[in-house]
Amino acid sequence: MTSLGIVSLAGGILGGLLLVRTSDDAFLRLLPWLLLIAAATFSFGGTIQRLLERPGGVGRRAPVIVFQFLIAVYGGYFGGGMGIMMLAALTIAGMKDIHEMNAVKSVLAVAINGVALAEFVALGAIAWAPGLIMMAGGIAGGYAGAATARRVNPRFVRVLVTVIAWGMTIVFFLR
After folding, report:
1. Theoretical Cys-Cys bridge with 32: which of 74, 76, 86, 172, CB 3.0 to 4.6 Å?
2. Residue, of 56 and 37, whose pLDDT is higher
């Protein structure tokens, strides 16, 4: 997990730099495709994991680290759907307990968003009034969501994440 944390920090920094230095038009054109990859990877992660681990496969460590770095760049830049993408990476990594996966995802998201936020503050790129409202909502939602998710059947959480992932993918393709 340390390697996932390191690549998350590095990717978050790079994504934040890309956000303040580039236009988002091209990236928004890529977004539906990124979400499609995440939804498919999460949905079929067990199969992908087995293919990577079979004799002659490349193993799962390197692909997961590369995938997490790309997710972190994306997260530092935009972030929508990043959680589903991380759940997909953790599925490929071999994790099966959705509650454990959500905990790891949350820590990695804090790393990614934290370094990007530090960059935005340092560069004076923060609109503080709406930013503080979003921060309060994010903290409240994070606590409420985690408390609720722990009481829900893991199978239901996995199905819900899958439905949301495919739903978001369809919505962004239709835009």
Report:
1. 172
2. 37
pLDDT, greater one: 5 or 37: 5
Conformational region of residue 53, where left means phi above 0, alpha means psi within -120 to 50, and beta covers everything else: alpha
Contacts of 107 (CB under 8 A, 6+ apart): 5
What pLDDT does residue 94 have?
84
DSSP string of the chain? -HHHHHHHHHHHHHHHHHHHHS-SHHHHHHHHHHHHHHHHHHHTHHHHHHHHHSTTS--SHHHHHHHHHHHHHHHHHT-TTHHHHHHHHHHHTT---HHHHHHHHHHHHHHHHHHHHHHHHHTT---HHHHHHHHHHHHHHHHHHHHHHHTS-HHHHHHHHHHHHHHHHHHHHH-
Distance CA 125, CA 167 (A): 31
